Amino acid sequence: MKNVLVAVDGSEASLKAARQAGDLARGFHARLTVLHVVAPVIIPSDAPWAPMDEIHAAELQRGQSIAQEVQRQLLPLESRELVKVGPAAETIVEVAASLPADLVVVGSTGKGAVKRLLLGSVADRVMHLTELPVLVVR
Ligand SMILES: Nc1ncnc2c1ncn2[C@@H]1O[C@H](COP(=O)(O)OP(=O)(O)OP(=O)(O)O)[C@@H](O)[C@H]1O
Ligand SMILES: [Mg+2]
Predict the structure, then answer these.
(1) How many CB atoms lie within 10 A of CB 38?
(2) Domain presence at residue 109
């Protein structure tokens, strides 16, 4: 196992997934990539004054700090952080394929946590969209 990818959304569940991924990466001497996906910002085209670039930059900045915070919590493990813009599940799967990841780690729930859900929609879609091994951390 050379590459472990963990997807984080800033939730407690995804931090738990990151710790698990960190332990595995350490054990296998694999490279850990911490990925956060930022949702594309949609602004009506009839709002020409919208500070598109600023909103976008702020979102990316926020995404970066989510990934960095997780990285900080995983120290002294060496990992790299990645922030991408797009639909969450599709982007996670795309990045996983491009590495390629030997293991994709996600939390079972995330920020949107509706308590009755055992499995969030992003985790569910990742499992359906990739043939790579997926670890869902509860
Ligand atoms: N934007 C994101 N970027 C990276 N990883 C994500 C993102 N959103 C979710 N994940 C990953 O998927 C896991 C499950 O989150 P998911 O979004 O499926 O659950 P939820 O937020 O509880 O439910 P839902 O989003 O369907 O309301 C998270 O712990 C995280 O690992
Ligand atoms: Mg969610």
Answers:
(1) 19
(2) yes
Ligand nearest to the CA of 112: 1
Domain presence at residue 94: no
pLDDT in tens, 31-76: 999 999 998 877 777 766 667 778 888 889 999 999 999 999 888 8
CB neighbour list of residue 31: distance below 8 Å, 6 or more residues apart: 2, 3, 4, 25, 79, 80
CATH for 127: 3.40.50.620
| 124 domain residue, yes or no | yes
Q: Tell whether 93 is covered by a domain.
A: no
Answer for the pair 68, 82: CB distance below 8 angstroms, yes or no. Answer: no
Which residue out of 5, 6, 8, 9 has the highest number of ligand 1 atoms within 8 Å of its CB and is therefore the one to mutate? 9
- Domain count for the chain, please give it: 1
Report d(CA 36, CA 87) in Å as an integer. Answer: 11
Give dist(CA 78, CA 29) in Å, integer: 10
Distance 107 CA to ligand 2 centre (A): 10
Domain holding 45, by residue range, is: 3-87+100-137
pLDDT digits (tens, 9 = 90+) for 29-42: 999 999 999 988 77
